[in-house]
Design a protein that fits this description.
This protein is an alpha+beta fold and about 230 residues long. Helices cover about 40% and strands about 25% of the residues. It starts with 7 loop residues before the first helix and ends with a helix.
Length: about 230
């Protein structure tokens, strides 16, 4: 009996198509650099599952796709950062090193496992000055992109990025960044999500100690009202 054969090229293409279809079903997540740091904004209809989180002092994580898979990546990133910070120093934990670790792990899963991870993630770090922020996008195949100004993952990400490219002005205020992020997320459907369906956080360089904080629903509602 002749064994069933699939060429490596076809296998990788099938994996890529599978991952893209899964990620396209997710609600979009965006990152926007603003004057005091980096805003992370996601459409999230769950009250208990977070798509955005803190990884380390100046570093945040955002994911889109299959929650259980990017949640495992989030936890692995926290362990990686804690161990590196303990073994060397807190200043040695950077978004670049974390993004490279994620790229390797996701790429290995894509090439070696039968089912690829249905995830795209963002890793952001706020710098001491606006031009020293770091923002990385890691795709389902492990490819990594160094982004500037903004980025988007999940859903109809290309439509979201198109709006961001057209309307982004470098380092807006937080309110302007929020309005832009909401408009970008609404682009595929034409309807802005309700405030309780939005999850937002910032890396604020002006905060002492840990730079990460979640935005309250009132702040998001004010941005929505101004956007309307």
């Amino acid at each position: 009996m002749i064994p069933f054969y699939v060429s490596p090229e076809q296998m990788m293409q099938d994996k890529a198509d599978y991952a893209r279809k899964g990620i396209a079903k997710a609600w979009p997540t965006v990152a926007v650099e603003y004057s005091d740091g980096v805003l992370l904004l996601a459409e999230n209809h769950s009250a208990i599952l977070h798509k955005i989180c803190e990884i380390y002092d100046r570093i945040a994580f955002a994911g889109a796709g299959k929650f259980s898979e990017f949640e495992s990546l989030r936890q692995a990133g926290i362990r990686h950062a804690d161990l590196k910070g303990y073994a060397y120093g807190r200043q040695d934990v950077t978004a670049r090193s974390l993004a490279n670790a994620y790229s390797q792990a996701i790429g290995e899963a894509f090439s070696q496992q039968v089912k690829p991870l249905e995830v795209e993630i963002l890793v952001a770090q706020v710098g001491a000055a606006p031009d020293s922020n770091e923002l990385y996008k890691i795709s389902f195949d492990g490819s990594i992109q160094d982004e500037k100004g903004f980025s988007a993952v999940g859903g109809e990400a290309e439509q979201v990025r198109e709006l961001l490219r057209d309307r982004y002005n470098p380092f807006p205020s937080l309110a302007e960044a929020l309005r832009l992020g909401i408009q970008a997320i609404a682009r595929p459907t034409g309807q802005s999500p309700a405030p309780d369906h939005l999850e937002a956080a910032v890396l604020d360089r002006n905060r002492s100690g840990r730079k990460f904080r979640f935005l309250q629903e009132q702040e998001i509602s004010q941005a929505l009202s101004a956007a309307g």
